[in-house]
Design goal:
CATH superfamily: Lipoprotein localisation LolA/LolB/LppX
CATH class: Mainly Beta
Distance between the termini: 22 Å
Number of domains: 1
Strand order of the largest sheet: 6-5-4-3-2-1-11-10-9-8-7
CATH topology: outer membrane lipoprotein receptor (LolB), chain A
Largest sheet: 11 strands, antiparallel
CATH architecture: Clam
Radius of gyration: 16 Å
Order of helices and strands: HEEEEEEHEEEEEEE
Length: 200
């Protein structure tokens, strides 16, 4: 079971989008997002739903702890994104920047160079689609925010839709978001199933 956010879309963005006030607000949100925890619900292209807890700490760290009984883990430790399937003792790693999640996990990146606002028809919702036109193999992600003064820069991330280069779609919805909570670096360590008792 291959996990991770990404999705298909018909055409690539041919030129760098023109920055807008909403793009600038999203950039400020990402730069002001030091830590976040939330519950999540993840739906894959086949409609299968998994739930769990998300923990994020900037820069570059995120953990998707899935519900009890699901033997998988997705975690980024600052540089690499790691997918672990404990049922088959399989570990896959790739650079965070090569994943759509790189948009969330590198607040120094200027998203105005590769993101555009997607009209939603709702004044209280901001939707931003991001992809690297030079690297379509990295996939594409659409982030959805709600305008809310309780979040960094007046936004709260509600979730995202991600597409990989094969067109596999993953939708993630967040609830019970909490910002600025204490998160230790140990939260992003994991047990390596290939070596008994080993932690990374």
């Amino acid at each position: 079971m291959k996990l991770l956010p990404l999705l298909p879309v018909a055409a690539l963005i041919a030129a760098a989008p023109v920055p807008s006030a909403d793009i600038a607000q999203v950039q400020r949100h990402l730069q002001g997002l030091s830590t976040m925890t939330s519950a999540f619900s993840q739906t894959d292209r086949n409609g299968k739903v998994l739930t769990g807890t998300l923990t994020l700490k900037q820069p570059g760290r995120i953990r998707f702890q899935y519900q009890k009984g699901v033997p998988i883990l997705l975690v980024a430790d600052g540089g690499a994104l790691t997918y672990i399937d404990y049922s088959v003792k399989q570990v896959q790693r790739w650079p965070v920047k090569n994943s759509p999640l790189g948009v969330l996990l590198d607040p120094k990146r200027d998203i105005g160079r590769y993101a555009r606002v997607v009209p939603t028809g709702a004044a209280q919702v901001v939707s931003v689609e991001a992809n690297d036109p030079k690297h379509p193999e990295y996939g594409r992600i659409t982030l959805v925010f709600a305008r809310n003064p309780g979040g960094p820069a007046g936004l709260i991330l509600q979730g995202w839709v991600a597409l990989d280069s094969q067109g596999n779609r993953t939708t993630v919805r967040l609830t019970n978001q909490r910002f600025g909570v204490a998160v230790g670096d140990d939260s992003f360590r994991w047990n390596d199933p290939r070596r008994t008792g080993a932690r990374r």
